[in-house]
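Inverse folding, one chain.
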């Protein structure tokens, strides 16, 4: 059996890093991605993956740039021999009252969290169709993703059905309250806005939003992604 290949965007930190490590443990060779400014952390992750005996390449790119995303997918195929699983994990967050958010800040969030996911799905799908051996596309969402949006639902269903004809499944994972650098930033900003000690905002959020009253770890999420990337999820698609 040939070695399978996975690409993980936004993998320098937190959930993306945990996913890349887990997939390497599962036997994948891994392409890891983040902005060029995260190169030092990507090199550390690459070293950890190589210590597990798996090949790992670094593909720095901005997921909001179509040219960079297309090249990233193509380089994965050319350098690792194919693309079997693509995890669109890259995302950013801004903790500010709505009326204080500038238009440029809003545009940047949309560029990464919406346009970036679309571009990764599109170009991963194109490469997988070209290969003719199916594949798995997995995207990061959030607990907010459970709120239905009719337009999005129809568009997403059409996208998934179109790829299913080529043996490509599409799924998403929805992290809750996960202790990562991103949540540290959220907690710090909220503590300043609310005038409460650092750490209290996070604990209050866990208490009010999570039924189990337990914060998640990046490894909790990587375990689910491991299942979605594996053979046991072949008949699961959104």
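Residues assigned per position:
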């Amino acid at each position: 059996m040939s070695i399978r290949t996975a690409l993980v965007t936004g993998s320098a930190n937190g959930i993306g890093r945990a996913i890349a490590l887990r997939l390497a443990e599962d036997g994948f060779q891994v392409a890891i991605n983040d902005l060029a400014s995260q190169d030092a952390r990507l090199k550390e992750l690459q070293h950890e993956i190589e210590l597990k005996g798996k090949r790992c390449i670094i593909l720095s790119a901005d997921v909001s740039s179509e040219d960079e995303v297309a090249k990233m997918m193509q380089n994965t195929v050319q350098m690792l021999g194919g693309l079997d699983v693509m995890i669109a994990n890259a995302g950013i967050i801004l903790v500010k009252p709505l009326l204080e958010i500038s238009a440029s800040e809003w545009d940047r969030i949309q560029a990464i969290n919406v346009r970036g996911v679309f571009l990764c799905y599109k170009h991963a799908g194109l490469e997988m169709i070209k290969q003719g051996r199916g594949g798995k596309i997995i995207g990061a969402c959030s607990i907010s993703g459970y709120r239905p949006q009719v337009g999005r639902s129809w568009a997403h269903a059409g996208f998934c059905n179109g790829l299913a004809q080529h043996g490509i499944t599409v799924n998403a994972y929805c992290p809750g309250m996960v202790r990562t650098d991103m949540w540290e930033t959220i907690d710090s900003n909220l503590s300043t806005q609310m005038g409460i000690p650092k750490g209290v905002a996070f604990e209050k959020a866990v208490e009010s939003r999570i039924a189990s009253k337990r914060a998640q770890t990046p490894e909790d999420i990587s375990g689910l992604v491991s299942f979605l990337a594996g053979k046991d999820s072949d008949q699961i698609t959104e």
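Residues 5-176+217-233 form a domain with the Rossmann fold fold (CATH 3.40.50.720). The beta strands are 5-8, 29-32, 56-58, 85-88, 135-140, 168-173.
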